[in-house]
Amino acid sequence: MNFKVNRNHRCPCDSGIKYKKCCYQSISSVDFDLSSFEEDRLNQADYQDGREILCDVLLEELQNFYYQLEEFKNNSNELPANFFTRLHEFNEKHPKHPIPLNYLYNGYILIGDHIKANSYMLEMYQKFPLYFFGRFIYASICLYNKEHEKAFEILGKYDSLKDLYPERKKFHVSEGYTFHEFLVKYHAKMKNRVLAERHYNCLVQLASSYPTHDSTQIIKTAREQIEWITFAAAFQVIQNMFTEKQV
Asked: How many other C-beta atoms lie within 10 A of the C-beta of residue 234?
């Protein structure tokens, strides 16, 4: 069970200040429903994205692929020699499930093969347009490529996961972190500080109720992205002043 943050604990934003004197003051007025989030694995039907329902043995096999990717990512452990072969076989046997494609995308990203990674990303998004992490990956690539209108249509125009998936009653905590983390970045890129702050506050509330091993870093990065808006605006003012003097 994760340790939840109360008002007298250190703030999840890592400011060193008590939660009640830091971010709690800014989030107390934000309407954010935490009751729809779950820390434990959701029932497969809860996702409502058209995926095949797998038995427990196959779910455990998928989970092992995930652990191997995390070990490679975080601890620089080598991927097993037959990792991609086994994952390809799993994907071929279960073409109506999005997660093998997700892991193939992430696996090839981690080893630096972006061409293969992008091919699996597009396949994942086209075959499973309702799969949240497929949408997130595609929207992130669009944002990176400055295709802002595409990023807006895929994720940027939504204010909450419930807005994105009105029929769903439950969401995993990882979906919440990923959704609001993306929207902080998107609105920061669009220089919309009000909306970026709103989604930052949602992240802080998630971290206070469902802290993870990397929630502090997520919040710190989100804060830096918001502060970039102010820096960019100040830099533009200075640049304009310099240009006027040159004229």
From this structure: 10
Q: What is the pLDDT of residues 65-92, one digit of tens each?
A: 999 999 998 887 789 999 999 999 999 9
Residue 71 lies in a domain: no
Query: Of the candidates 63, 112, 69, which has an alpha carbon nearest to the alpha carbon of residue 90?
Result: 63
Residue 95 lies in a domain: no
Q: Give the model confidence (pLDDT) of 150-207 as tens digits.
A: 999 999 999 999 999 999 999 999 999 999 999 999 999 999 988 999 999 999 999 9
What phi-psi label fits residue 105: left (phi over 0), alpha (psi between -120 and 50 degrees) or beta?
Answer: alpha
Amino acid at 213: H
**Among the listed residues 191, 174, 117, 183, the one whose alpha carbon sits nearest the alpha carbon of residue 152:** 183
What domain range is 25 assigned to? 15-32+151-168+180-247
Q: How many domains in the chain? A: 1
Contact 215, 12 (CB under 8 A): yes
Residue 219 placed within a domain? yes
Please report whether residue 184 resides in a domain.
Answer: yes
Greatest pairwise CA separation for the chain in angstroms: 71
Please answer whether residues 103 and 65 qualify as being in contact, where contact means their C-beta atoms are separated by less than 8 angstroms. yes
Q: Are 151 and 136 in contact (CB under 8 A)?
A: no
CA-closest candidate to residue 176, choices 146, 208, 129? 208
Q: From CA 150, how far away is CA 138, in angstroms rounded?
A: 9
- Reduced to 3 states (helix: H, G, I; strand: E, B; else coil), residue 38 is strand
